[in-house]
């Protein structure tokens, strides 16, 4: 650490100085997600590619990449979207080299969390993956000899009075900095300034003297990477309503990213604005006996958030007056990192500083663990509902969230284990795992509630609450037999008998057990029927909080997703092609969608085929 940072306007000059200071042996830490100093990282990568005497190891997670395509149909949708949303966003160079198998031997890249599904087919990425609880990552970075940490930062002030905010990624940086400084080893902290990042005060703000190098100049100020909000299906909305009925007024909340997080947010807002409508929806979705002890009233005290990720949904809950209960230090939210939509980033930038200070960015050890300031955390985190998503859950309550049975990693453990364990430790705490009961895969429907699986993320002794669109299974403290019965009640009816037979064969449930009659109609059609009155009143919309997608793109997203599902089956695809030949002329809205895909006036046989098939998909995906 120097008295003041060495200021640069070119990333290449910082790279040269780093290589000189560290004699060409660089262990580079890059924050998870949005907070990577992409320009500095790319400059170091470029130097190492050109000079094989440089040894570069990169340790990071959640490498954000612009959307790509695997077919001409996808290209027609994605290419204009990338141009509109990501123009000027710097790509991260190591990701392309990894994907193309061109990573030089003197460069190694390891991640502890992947963007879901993005690296399944890249063997070198799978081989170098580090399985870690989020709270352990800082220790692993230090053990691996990290000597550079390069981070995107926000700036306030100039010269000796300048301050730099870690903004979107306090998570690992705040945890490792004091430990590394105490060792008095060679270490460089590099900040890459972005005017688009909100200046988050409190622990996130560091004096200029903490940094060794600062990249700051007009040519370096790039747009932020955005994550458009995903469409929310009717099944997602049903899950959101169920989960929202488990949240206690005056309690604590964690929300995950994606459509299920938005569905929960939407359910909480419905409960706040229209408690009677919310209660009616809950009864439509579940048997009377299943909802007797649920929460349906509006929030009088409000909620406090302790969530490793500060997601868009917390912005919506704050605006609605639901997120307002203050913790011991006056914050209404503690979080370790954020990345979100453009609207979310603008929301944070636009807040007055005293209001922005209500959202406190902290080290991940503070958010995800009780250790350290434990009395304060226990007092703040009463009646916590830690809501996390999963890929699968076994009938005896083991959760599968990060990897497949063959060992390939889909995403990562992150903080899921931390929060599941924490739920058992805080007063009134509950861990809630949410997932759709079934999914379309390889052209067929597959149950996501399974008898057993070859890999687990959370062992069954941490089983607590599981929520699907068909209801809530409370597994906490229950016997294996009772867990199985509860899980069968929230499984898709297409798979209930098969799952029950496996449980009976294993001797884990009585031979004469039958599926209760009020759980035997667990079908997508019943969910659609139950939520239709809400949809008619403007609730349960595909994009309840808006989106970066245009109106045409909003119609195209489910249609293209439907086409992708059926394309995995030759039989289903053949049926769709034959059916599409009978489609009549598109209406005004359908024509606008075809124009967006450059298919409104097809000139080749392939384009005519695409136009017919897409029109067919648009008409069959409207209510999905």
Automatic annotation (TrEMBL):
One of its GO terms (biological process) is acetate metabolic process. Residues 340-503 form the Acetyl-CoA hydrolase/transferase C-terminal domain. InterPro entries: AcetylCoA_hyd_C, AcetylCoA_hyd_C_sf, ActCoA_hydro, NagB/RpiA_transferase-like. Keywords: Hydrolase. The keyword Signal does not apply. It comes from the Bacteria. GO terms for molecular function: acetate CoA-transferase activity; hydrolase activity. The keyword rRNA processing does not apply. PANTHER family: ACETYL-COA HYDROLASE, ACETYL-COA HYDROLASE-RELATED. This is Acetyl-CoA hydrolase. It comes from Sinorhizobium terangae.
